[in-house]
Amino acid sequence: xxxxxxxxxxxxxxxxxxxxxxxxxxxxxxSYPPAVQASASGGTVNLTLQTxxxxxxxxxxxxxxxxxxxxxxAWQHSTVIDLPANTLVxxxxxxxxxxxxxxxxxxxxxxxxxxGTIQVDGKTIxxxxxxxASHTFAVPGLGISVPIFGVADDAPNQCATxxxxxxxxxxxxxxFTFRTGKPGHYRWQCFVPCAAGFINGFGGPMQTVGYMDxxxxxx
Length: 219
Description:
Helix content: 10-25%
């Protein structure tokens, strides 16, 4: 191979690598879904989420995901949420997904929430059995970690339709309250290895904003 051909091959390889890196950054790292404004009532903000075993829509139909309800009451496929600073946020999570279990029992106890407890289907608890966890709602920057109880494998009438899942199908309701504190851009995510088909369960949706992690824009 001539020197010119070698130089051309190197230049072509570098160009391809740069193009692939640019595609990755645009398509994954910096590609965020639109922010959703949580609904407000008096001095309290109401944030309603649902978790499902599979999104059911392109481009990642089988991926596990969170959804958020907007101010009009419609479900949006986003995990970027706008919240006011120094405000109580009342969170309701409808979980339609099964039990994956926690690899670290530390996550089985709610932290950073009002009263140190959560309500699971109306029952107030201070911890769950690590084996029964489906997901977590964790905001490290605010010291928040909440385990989300999973639907039993043998529960009847489980959600098998494209999202959002109807409330008539099997689900577990988790309720808790936290205070946002000072303004900031806070990452939140699930720490349960629930990404089926990926190494150690932590790839794909676990690393993608809009699925199992996102941001709280507190202002």
